[in-house]
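Researcher: Next entry in the queue.
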Amino acid sequence: MSELQSLIAEELAQPVDPRVTAFAESIADQYGAASRAVLFYGSCLRTTELDGQMLDFYLIVSSYDAAYGKSWLVKANKLLPPNVFPAAHDGLVAKIAVLSERDFHKLNHISASAVSVWARFAQPSRLVWCADEVAKEKAVAAIENAPITLFDMAFPMMEVDSKHSLTNLWEKGFELTYGAELRAERAGRSVSVVDADPDRYQRFGLATMAAIAKRDTKASGKLKIVASRAAVEKRWKQLRRNGKLLTLARLTKASGTYAGGIDYLAWKINRHAGTDYVIKPWQRKWPILGAIVMLPRLMAGGAIK
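Model: Structure for this entry, 305 residues:
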């Protein structure tokens, strides 16, 4: 196991509030034998605040067919992963994103069509339930790709002829990922994420650099150039376009999988952007149309970018 994998495994195993563990077990039970791992991540993990908040879980399943049986949800999850569902347990509420083991590995890789998965798992997460040791090893292997992808995509975008720290590299990477999605985050969010645990990012940064160097060293001992700045800039342009389009497409899909999805969207935007947007009754009745009306106004006002 590499140093980076060891750090990931150690971080995933750190304890969480027992209510989070119980919530994760209830999620896994719902999907039975299809459940492989449940990961807890996001702002509630960073702040440890649970009551009155929306927790974030990823449920990793063996396959969508095993998870849903004969349902339209199988195609929905395959065509536009992940499917997102609301959940409640013991007074807590959460949203659950469902991915197969195959898609979880693929979406943490640099070839992913959007940043949403690897941007999140380059940050701290916890493995709060897993089916067996194999499932744990697969989760660690998939998550290992996340910081490597972030560094591969951020380093060529750093200013040349300047001295940079690992902190600068993390901050640049998160700044770029926030810009590649429809986000409701305040300015400086990329800095605050790293500032929340600078020692963690230093340790993970060193291990990520070592993993990249080992990967890129040929038998001759020489490093190879992976991509030029021009190529990476072109890739970021694609990711920004894909990310914003995928956000809208997933919102549309969520109208069929996520009861009250438009209220969650408004809550998320108000919480992060400091706005006070109020959903009207007709928007709950026709959530897709309501979101279409809402998003341009919020974008024009700078609440989301």
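Model: The longest helix spans residues 229-257.
Researcher: Noted, moving on.
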